[in-house]
Amino acid sequence: MIMDNSKTTSKTTLLKLMLLRAWKERWTDCQWGINVKTILTRGVSGDVYNLADAIIQQAVVGSGANMLFLSYLKHSLCAHLISHAAVLNRIAKYDQFDKHHCLIALLDFLKSIIDGVTCRGKQEEAILTKATVSLVHWLLQIYECVLQSYAEDSTLQPEEEEVVQRVAVVLERIVENPFLLGVLSIGKCDDPELFIALQKRFNGISNLTLTTGYVANVGGGNANSLTVTDCMRKLVLLEVDALEMRPFDGGKVEPITYSLQPLIAIEVLLNPMCDTHQYVAQLINLKRLKGFTYARLYCELMRGCLIALNNVEGTAKESLLCAFAFIKVPHILHQLHAKTNGAEQQDEATGATYSVEVLEAFDLLLQDTPVLDYMDMKCACNVVECLLKEMVKLQLLTDTHVKQLVALREPVTAGLHKLDANSAPLTMMLKFVFRVESPLAGILKALSTDCSKVQDALLAMLCQVLTGNSLDLVLSVASVEGKFKAFISGLLKCNDYAKQATTAEIGKAPTTRSALFDVSFMILASIAQSYGSDVILAEGGNSFFEKWVRDYMVERKKTKSPMTMVKQADPMVLEELIMAMNNSEGMYVGLKASSLRWEDICYTIPALVHQVLMAWESESIAPLEIKKMLDGLKAYFSTFAVCAASWLCAYMQMVRQDEQLKPMNMVQQLCSALAGPLADEWQQQDYCKERFGLMGQIVRRMQQEFLRTPQVNPKLRALFPSQQQQHVVSHLPLEEQFEEAWKAIAERGWLPIETTFLLDTLLQSCGPAWLVEKLIGKLFVCKYVRDLNKTMDIIFAIMHLDIERCTIALLSQLVPMMLLSKAQTPEIVDPQSRVLAKLCVYCIIVTMETSLTATKKRTRGTASSELEDLDALCTSAKLRKIELEGMGVGCTESATGGATGTEFSLDSALEPTASAWTTEAASNASLKEPLQSCLQTLFRTFAQHIATDELSPKVYFVFQFLSLLVESGRERIMCVLKLLPNGLVQSLLKINATDEMTVGLIL
Fold it and tell me: Within 10 Å of residue 507's Cβ, how many Cβ atoms?
């Protein structure tokens, strides 16, 4: 209300005169209330005329407080003539701390009104937040003044002790009042300068407390009660998440989690090059979402790996999962322990330190006897012992713990064969996984030196790797140990060195170098097939092989133009190749006689094969001549056969079905064994069988990738029944494929390997919206809460196939459709709506986390710099630091909104966890597109459903969604909450005005 200044001044004077008259005539409270309304017109607050200021000023004129005036003040509050904000503001301005009786009276008055402080939406109540901060600052001033007096005299007067007791009571009332805590937290944002002063004041009190040793208790002064300093610390360090909130699931931690094993299967199988720091960030995020302890998280990680090993026997991913479980997991636990400052203790016998959480995790793991018994039987060894030995290497446990824990499993595993003596496939795999670390180190050392000096030894090492499944083992161990990039770099350097020779060279050295070129080329090609060409091209170089894989290698999901390859050939090289092909003694002899460089031949083979195929199509060349040409290529170099097969498979993808038969026959010929004099000549080459075996694997994979495409000639499929049995292509409808996949998951409760790849194929084929809709359909089929939570966990893990796209599909398409009651979507009702809300929130938080991690990853170079980035982020998270034993407290510029020159810092009361989502990251985080737009649209949909006063299942879903978002996200989710439309929470409060709408949630 805007009023004339002169009129306001005159009424203020009248009120002061009335106060003097009331005191002279000793008016009662009721008389005061009746008479003051003759001056205050209806609807006008006394705050306009500074009524509270006038009353308190008269009340504390003398050495003691005038209780009559204080009774008028209280009556004015009860009659709503003045506001609580005005009273608190005026009391906070009183600075005559030597008038102990006045202080005691004011503190007693505060004690009587503090629980009733409220805000009724009037204009003058807008200052309540700052007034509350000012009041707390005033209470700290009083206590500091008493401490200074104690420091001088080493004792307190009785009046001072009474002041301290009153301060303690008022502070305790504020700490126990959720509304005042909420108002205080808003006030800290409204007036950051005053909050800085508050922190400085507390810093001084902490120092005085340490110096003087004076401690004042609240709540009767018993031994277990809080001290005054503790109450102050709670107010200074107040965080929104310290306020009372009703836990979404009653605060219970789930007894069994079904999300970790599918998550491990997806990440390890589909993203084998994932760095350790990414696993660490992902696991910490999952721990926060689930409310696990670190010991429980470590246990679930090891348990999930053992379950994932259940069906890997005999598969191509057997070595990868074994290496991950027994080599990578200990490194993940070691980094988790280091980043989170995990608890450590010393072994009394040896003095070695160990991780308390890791030891507790093994105690929990040993309780899961069914999983351990099955895996011990399957591996014919004590799997716990295998894990423990790796933990000792990283100093997470000691040898004493190994003996104790192994002894607990010994009675069960006593009848099983030892690791060395057993020939079971999985047992042998475990044996080889542990033994391959040393050869890998030797290969890397040889690759890092000058290849010309060690080429014989290096060739022997690489060809030894080609025996059996040793290459898969080496690649698996290299990937989980973080040595994959070094291995690839060494191979590229080796291949570039070896290609410098020409076919005209003679002697032993060129022969060895030619074999080295052949072997290194095919190992790199095999890596590109298994792990994707991106792992090769990530090196950013311009070597021969990188150019070949970029422009000439046929790949899944990366279409290459066969005619572009043909056009890139050098006509002179092509002419010489044709001359070699037409050599009377065969192409093998013709190539040996030519002076062409091997890299030029590789680039020209597509043009040569194209001409031969066109000649066959026009029947100007006989099939026998084609066979001799192809045999000559693969007999000279297995690399040439790979180059020819790559072009033929790319060509088959571009032509009609009736034109695919002849090129496929050529591919088959490249895989067939050599015979006759050519075979005798070929067998004289170094390590010919090993090279030819790897070439056959590479060509067959290219063949299989082609057979996955829909345009394959049915006659070709009939020629490869074995590949059909390997599910290269499925004739079932997509929905039936999904049902088969879900049945396999539902029966087991975990994600099998083949199902992981099938779900990934369905995602790529049908898109995230289709897959998420099918998954949510399975969620709403469940009737019991236990089944709902289990299904939600599995769905959440499956969405990590592409968490961002699946989350966008869930929030932008499926949830809005369910809210708008589309006929094809299930109805949102409890308990399904509760679990759906949890799934949505989990996906939002993980998508934000993934987006931040991905951004960081793009800017990183080496593994060491990645760890440095994480260290820096974790260090910068400590915006506020407090030493609970009474040391100094303060805040940095970031936390205080622009403070300068402050020499103290506050640490938040949050646990000291290492994650990409830290306090600073959360406060400065901004949502990435398309998640931000998606959430804005979703929140607008929410606003449509709470526009009325009717409480419906859909409105309750909105409340559940927001409630869990706040509980799970805390400070990390602030950037999401900022997108809420104005009035959404207020409207929700009107509809769902229950005990669930706590102050903490609203804030």
Answer: 8
3-state secondary structure 157-208: CHHHHHHHHHHHHHHHHHHCCHHHHHHHHHHHHHCHHHHHHHHHHHHHHHHH
Q: How confident is the model at residue 301 (pLDDT cuts 50, 70, 90)?
A: very high
List C-alpha distances in Å: 702 to 112, 556, 653, 773. Answer: 83, 9, 11, 33
Q: Which two tokens stand for residue 547?
A: 């150019």
User: What would the pLDDT profile of 834-864 be if each residue is shown by its tens digit?
Assistant: 899 999 999 999 998 776 655 433 333 333 3
- Token pair, residue 26, equals 């000793």
Burial class (CB in 10 A: 0-12, 13-18, 19+), 105: buried
pLDDT over 80 (residue 587)? no
Sequential DSSP letters for 953-988: HHHHHHHHHHHHHHHHHGGGGHHHHTTSPTTHHHHH
Cβ(300)–Cβ(255) below 8 Å:
no
Chain position carrying tokens 């970790």:
260
Q: What's the rounded Cα separation, in Å, for the pair 133 and 189? A: 10
| Amino acid of residue 992 | N
Residues 664/657, Cβ–Cβ less than 8 Å = no
DSSP string across 49-67: GTHHHHHHHHHTSSSS--H
Quick one: three-class SS letters along 108-127?
HHHHHHHHHCCCCCCHHHHH
Residue 100 has pLDDT above 50, yes or no: yes
Question: Helix axis angle, 276-290 relative to 294-308, nearest 10°?
Answer: 120
**Cβ-contact 297, 283 below 8 angstroms:** yes
Q: Which two tokens stand for residue 302?
A: 């090891």
- Of 128, 146, 111, residue with least CA distance to 191: 128
Radius of gyration of the chain (CA): 38
Q: Is residue 74 over pLDDT 70?
A: yes
Rounded Cα gap, residues 775 and 796, in angstroms: 10
Strands 353-355 and 344-346, bridge-based pairing: antiparallel
In sequence order, what DSSP letters do the residues of 23-90 get, joined into one string? HHHT--HHHHHHHHTTTS-TT--GGGGTHHHHHHHHHTSSSS--HHHHHHHHHHHHTTSS-HHHHHHH
Closest residue by Cα to residue 42 from 85, 1, 89: 1
- Residues 465, 435: contact at Cβ < 8 Å? no
H or E element: which one contains 437?
helix 437-448
Q: How far, in Å, CA of 221 to CA of 217, rounded? A: 5
Name residue, tokens 């770099």: 489
Nearest residue to 703 via CA among 208, 933, 695: 695
**Neighbour count for residue 996 (Cβ, 10 Å):** 14
For residue range 881-898, list pLDDT tens digits in order.
323 233 333 333 333 333
DSSP per position, 591-657: HHH---BHHHHHHHHHHHHHHHHHHHHTT-S-HHHHHHHHHHHHHH-HHHHHHHHHHHHHHHTTS-G
Q: What are the structure tokens assigned to 254, written together?
A: 């789930």
How far apart CA 232 and CA 144 sit, in angstroms, is 12
Name which of 499, 531, 530 is nearest 515 in CA terms.
499
Q: How far is Cα 935 from Cα 938, in angstroms, rounded to an integer?
A: 5
Residue linked to tokens 């595993």? 413
Q: Measured between alpha carbons, how far is 462 from 694 in angstroms, rounded to an integer? A: 12
Q: How confident is the model at residue 203 (pLDDT cuts 50, 70, 90)?
A: confident
CA–CA distance from 524 to each of 164, 463, 553, 671, 959 (Å)?
77, 13, 11, 19, 54
Cis peptide bond upstream of 262, omega within 30: no
Place 596 in a pLDDT band, splitting at 50, 70 and 90. Answer: confident
User: DSSP label at 354?
Assistant: E
Q: Are 337 and 358 contacting, i.e. CB atoms less than 8 angstroms apart?
A: yes
